[in-house]
Write a structure and sequence with these properties.
Layout: E1 3-6, E2 26-30, E3 43-44, E4 54-55, E5 65-69, E6 74-77, E7 82-85, H1 90-99, H2 106-113, E8 144-150, E9 153-159, E10 164-165, E11 189-192, E12 197-201, E13 207-209, E14 235-238, E15 254-257
Parallel strand pairs: 14-15
Antiparallel strand pairs: 1-5, 2-4, 2-6, 3-5, 6-7, 8-9, 9-10, 11-12, 12-13
């Protein structure tokens, strides 16, 4: 709450109908042009209550005084009809208002309201107590929902179709998974058709696939190859029969002879 200053300017003169000044005269102060109630909550320029009311000086001028809190208009009557007075400190108040970094509290409100929003630029550290941190309603298309770009080059894209296209900007691993602390019995990657899981990949390198595994190039296996159609059969190749080399052949073992 603040009081405004009235009077005290060259325009604030008390005059009669003929234009003559009215010195040392008490005026009646009202809140509006037709209000019947007098305003008595008045202070002089130094803040002292005007016990005798509003008086003109010896020149017939209205001295500077303070009106009630937050009042922007007062009406005074020096026996010649009511005349409106407006505050004389509007310019000062406007300057203070313009100098205030947040005169309406909008900045403080905005900072509080959007503190958890994602900024368009810069780092975003978001904290949430809800289960869903970011929910996006995407169109039925393959538009980019999230796209990383650098120097005009499009990198990794998260599509509205649900696909994730990994595209590093530099000679980096496209997908690196740190499996710790996932246990060896828990898959690190699973692929499911919505019902059963068709593929599992474990942290120790094991791959459990319910479907066909095709290899276009060579396959090197350091351990056993197990399959339902060959059981525990072993495959040997070379110019010499493995049986002559101290190898105890088992039923189902295969020796592919080549050369001489």
């Amino acid at each position: 709450m603040a009081r405004n200053f009235f009077g005290g300017t060259a325009a604030d003169a008390a005059e009669n109908e003929s234009g003559g000044r009215l010195p040392n005269l008490k005026g009646r102060v009202y809140a509006s042009e037709d209000s019947p109630d007098l305003v008595t909550d008045l202070l002089d320029a130094s803040g002292t209550p005007l016990k005798d009311g509003l008086l003109t000086d010896e020149r017939g001028m209205i001295p500077a005084f303070q009106g009630p809190d937050d009042v922007e208009q007062l009406w005074v009557d020096f026996n010649a009809g009511r005349v409106m007075l407006t505050p004389n400190d509007v310019g000062k108040r406007l300057a203070v208002h313009l100098a205030d970094p947040d005169p309406h509290g909008a900045k403080a409100y905005t900072n509080e309201a959007v503190k958890d929003y994602v900024a368009k630029r810069g780092r975003n550290d978001m904290q949430t107590s809800t289960e869903v941190l970011l929910a996006v309603d995407v169109p039925a298309a393959t538009n980019d929902v999230i796209r990383m770009s650098r120097d005009g080059v499009t990198g990794t894209q998260f599509k509205s179709s649900g696909a994730l296209n990994l595209r590093p900007f530099t000679d980096s691993t496209a997908l690196a998974i740190t499996a710790d602390p996932v246990s060896a019995t828990k898959p690190v990657v699973t692929v499911s058709d919505g019902g059963s899981t068709n593929l599992r990949m474990y942290k120790n390198g094991d791959i459990d696939s319910a479907g066909k595994v095709s290899v276009a190039g060579d396959m090197t296996v350091s351990g056993s190859v197990l399959a339902g159609n060959i059981g525990t059969a072993r495959v040997f190749s070379g110019t010499v029969d493995p049986a002559t080399q101290g190898v105890a052949l088992k039923p189902g073992d295969i020796w592919v002879q080549y050369g001489s």
